[in-house]
């Protein structure tokens, strides 16, 4: 079984979608430059992908890669039909190696470093998409495929935006079903909730005097414990992150305002302008006065 991973930050774009009733045209090779997700509405569907043959039952999904040749290899005895949607993904889906590492051992849900306000990173949860699957919520998925088909047939307003929304809901249902079936837990540890509570507090009050006592009272836990938790998930200590938040705000004020260095220091919670300049240079590599020269036209 093949599995693919898509970053939570991926950009999906629906190119085309429709419901197809199997006919003679199905028995010649088809291919296109996009991913194509198939969901069987009436089965079976006898699908050949390159040199592999599959029998897909009603309710099953199948993901085709860009340019994969596919066709029907046997005519059904009764009615046979499926929905399909072609879409692009940026970045492309990543095939996971399950030959040496079982799918249940992949780290799908994790604490993301891009929750830090000062970080711009592509680190994100992975949406797990199986090549072939039979989701438990298949009737709900069929409704979304019908919505896709209707939007494409009757384009109104921001229909392309709605097409992407429907596709994302379909992928979410598949991924969630797979997650529930293959992973022992879908929840993150309790310490992660503490980390997020602390982050939220720091984001709101970084410009104030955040002493150990203030943080302990807010978190109702020892400073040593919350420091360990913060370091575990962020990779840095609390004081350094507070400095990063203050410098981030200072950079905006240096670029967009006429406030003096002293006034900016006070604005971000630092009374000593010399100390502010020292911290700023440690993080940015240049003193605030030089930074302003470089970024103000």
From TrEMBL:
SMART domains, alphabetized: HTH_ARAC
Domain HTH araC/xylS-type residue range list: 196-294
Keyword Transcription regulation in annotation: yes
GO MF annotations in UniProt: DNA-binding transcription factor activity; sequence-specific DNA binding
A Pfam family: AraC_binding
Top-level taxon: Bacteria
Key words, A-Z: DNA-binding, Transcription, Transcription regulation
Protein name: AraC family transcriptional regulator
Organism: Paenibacillus piri
Classification of source organism: Bacteria, Bacillati, Bacillota, Bacilli, Bacillales
């Amino acid at each position: 079984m093949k599995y693919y991973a898509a970053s939570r930050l991926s950009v999906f774009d629906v190119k085309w979608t429709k419901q197809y009733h199997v006919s003679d045209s199905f028995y010649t090779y088809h291919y296109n430059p996009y991913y194509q997700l198939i969901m069987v509405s009436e089965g079976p569907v006898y699908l050949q992908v390159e040199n592999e043959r599959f029998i897909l039952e009603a309710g099953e999904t199948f993901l085709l890669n860009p340019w994969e040749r596919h066709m029907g290899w046997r005519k059904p005895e009764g009615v046979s039909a499926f929905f399909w949607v072609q879409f692009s993904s940026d970045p492309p889906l990543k095939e996971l190696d399950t030959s040496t590492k079982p799918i249940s051992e992949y780290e799908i849900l994790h604490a993301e470093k891009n929750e830090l306000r000062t970080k711009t990173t592509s680190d994100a949860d992975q949406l797990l998409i199986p090549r072939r699957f039979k989701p438990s919520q298949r009737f709900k998925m069929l409704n979304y495929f019908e919505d896709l088909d209707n939007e494409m047939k009757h384009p109104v307003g921001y229909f392309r935006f709605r097409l992407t929304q429907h596709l994302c809901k379909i992928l979410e249902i598949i991924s969630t079903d797979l997650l529930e079936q293959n992973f022992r837990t879908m929840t993150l540890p309790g310490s992660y909730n503490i980390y997020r509570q602390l982050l939220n507090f720091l984001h709101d009050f970084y410009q104030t005097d955040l002493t150990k006592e203030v943080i302990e009272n807010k978190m109702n836990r020892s400073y040593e414990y919350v420091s360990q938790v913060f370091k575990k998930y962020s990779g840095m200590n609390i004081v350094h992150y507070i400095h990063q938040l203050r410098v981030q705000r200072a950079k905006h004020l240096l670029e967009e305002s006429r406030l003096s260095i002293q006034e900016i220091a006070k604005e971000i919670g630092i009374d000593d302008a010399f100390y502010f300049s020292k911290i700023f240079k440690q993080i940015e590599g240049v003193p605030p006065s030089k930074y302003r020269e470089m970024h103000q036209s």
